[in-house]
Amino acid sequence: MKKISIGKILTYLVLTIGALIMIFPFYWMIATTLKTSAEYASYPPVWAPSNWLNFENFVAAFKAAPMATYFKNSVVVTVISVAINSFTTICAAFAFSRLKFKGREFLFACLLSFMMVPFEMLVITNYTTVSKLHLINTLAVLIIPFTTSIFYTYILKSFFDTISDSLYYSARIDGASNWKYLWRVMVPIAKPSLVTILLLNTIASWNSYLWTSLTITSDTNRTIPLALSVFMTDAGSNQQLQLAAATVAVLPMIILFIFARKYIVNGVARGGIKG
């Protein structure tokens, strides 16, 4: 019993230390945005602001850059891209899981092989394509390239494969079409995996930076991740305002993850189980 107790204590101690290491950067970011200029420049550093209700840096950040416009653009891009991506993922996963057509397994294997290609290798090709379509510096260029995902299709297909075929044949005997069976039976059953896909896709779309920085040049179409570059000049950067903008960008995703973390873990775990 003593050995078990000591083992548990060590386990919780290691987990606590790991949690503190992960949380500290977020704490420091928020604490710095609430400090005064004197507190920020002081040495040794001040670990906590004297006034936790000092929002002057946030006010200055919103005055220095159109943060409201960036936030609105991020919401629009995220909602539309996630909605379209979810629809295409559901349809593709159902097709590869239930529909019988020639070359299905080979085609799916080819699609999975594309997951080994990093996005950075496709940037030039994608940029050339959207440039010919005259989509540069529009919100559409942030949506169209991300309307499908092989990874999310793989997760959902793996979950669809665990659903008994008897449900499908019973529904077909009762006169249900494939379309009706998908939305009335499979989608409700696959809710855990769907929630996981929605959350992961939302976080990825919201935090997208590389593609956005290459294709968006005007303030009117910038998104939240690009707001950080506004506070950088040749003479240096205003780190307090940068951290204030970073807090605005990160806080919605932190809140989303806190409330939905169990769905992400359960959905990925159940999506990877077959049989």
Order of helices and strands: HHHHHHHHHHHHEEH
The fraction of residues in strands falls at under 5%
Classify the helix fraction into a percent range.
Answer: 55-70%
Count of strand segments: 2
- Span of the ends, CA to CA: 38 Å
How is the biggest beta sheet arranged? 2 strands, antiparallel
Low-confidence stretches: none
Rg over C-alpha atoms, rounded to the nearest angstrom: 24 Å
Number of helices: 13
Q: How much is the average pLDDT?
A: 84
How would the global form be characterised? globular
Structural class comes to mainly alpha
- How are strands sequenced across the largest beta sheet? 1-2
Could you characterize what this model shows?
This protein has 13 helices and two strands, in the order ααααααααααααββα. A hairpin with a 2-residue loop joins strand 1 and strand 2. Helices cover 69% and strands 1% of the residues. The protein is globular and about 75 Å long. It is an all-alpha fold. The two termini are 38 Å apart.
